[in-house]
Amino acid sequence: MSLELRERDLDGFFEVPFAVYPADSPYVTPMRSDLDRYLDPARNPLMRDGGGRLTHFTARRDGRPVGRLVVHTHPASNLRHGTRRCQFGFFDCDDDVEAARALFARAEAFARDQGCDELVGSFNLTAMQQAGVLTDGFAGVPYTDMVWGPPHLPRLLEACGFAATFPMSTFEFDVGPETADRLLGPRQRAILDDPDWTWTPISRRQFKVRFEEARQCLNDGFSDNPMFVPLTPAEFDFQAGEMMWIVDPAIASLVHYKGQPAGVVICIPDLNPFQKAVKGRFGPTALFHFLKARLRRRRAVIIFYSVKQALHGQGVNGAMLHRVTRALDERGYRQCGVTWISDENTASLRQMEKLGARRLHRLHLFRKAI
Prior knowledge:
The chain is 36% helix and 28% strand. By secondary structure, it is of the alpha+beta class. The chain folds into 2 domains: 167 residues, Aminopeptidase, CATH 3.40.630; 188 residues, Gcn5-related N-acetyltransferase (GNAT) (Aminopeptidase, 3-Layer(aba) Sandwich). β13, α13 and β14 form a beta-alpha-beta unit. α8 crosses α13 and α11 packs antiparallel against α12. The protein is globular. The chain starts with a strand and ends with a strand. This is GNAT superfamily N-acetyltransferase.
């Protein structure tokens, strides 16, 4: 059986998960239109403005798509963190060692050509988007912005010479008034009662203004986090701008302190049921499935939350999450997911404990020196 690798074969790239994962698996594809723009160096500001290089490969066995891989550089990350790293992402593959090795051989050649000395992933496409390879919790149904892959992917990576590093987890908690109240202590109550702290929903009418404030809070609050690179306005808009059409203003909120943006929680309805129903394509039935998912939505997901560093340790995160959790309950949501948190982030892990959150998935990055 012959194996063929194709570069920039977007049709085959998109079809790989449908060809190799069962239809009833938890995998949820990105929308094809999103993949198209993510993987277009002329449209993605990470490459267009930031000087990154990107390509993608599809493995076909006797014409059938059996594996895929993106490989790219992130110059701003390498400069900030003193690395010579090349990153891989969107690794999906049949349980086929030959196909995996062929894909990573091409990725390693690309990385060496770019002067890199390590290959690390999975990043789809950065640490502020989907990150990690699933290593436990394979039965957990992912929320928007969470990755899923079958148990053989870590085995394939190990067979290709990669080692697991940087452990992470995603979480899920049940929504209800008692959940929200677990977050309240004296500091959180003081913030909620203080008129210097004002709470502003992220509505469509003021979306651009609020999202720029959200970017400022993210960049400031995450500045010291591992792998973090401040997002430019163009990068943030490219990654999150389309949230304007799906945001629920009641559950996404900015907090201002004395009139200045201080913290943000980006929480949105879980779009995965819609994306799974339409199989990642905007076709004739997409509007029907979107409205159906909207009427039946019971799950939301916290994409990120951040407080400016000058206000760390004052209880702001707990106050924000309390308000969001109460709003989720009032809007009829029953579960909420939280995207990846590293084992190093003890402050966020404490918030998960207070929420009574359970671990949904276990993930790792995989690294190989080249």
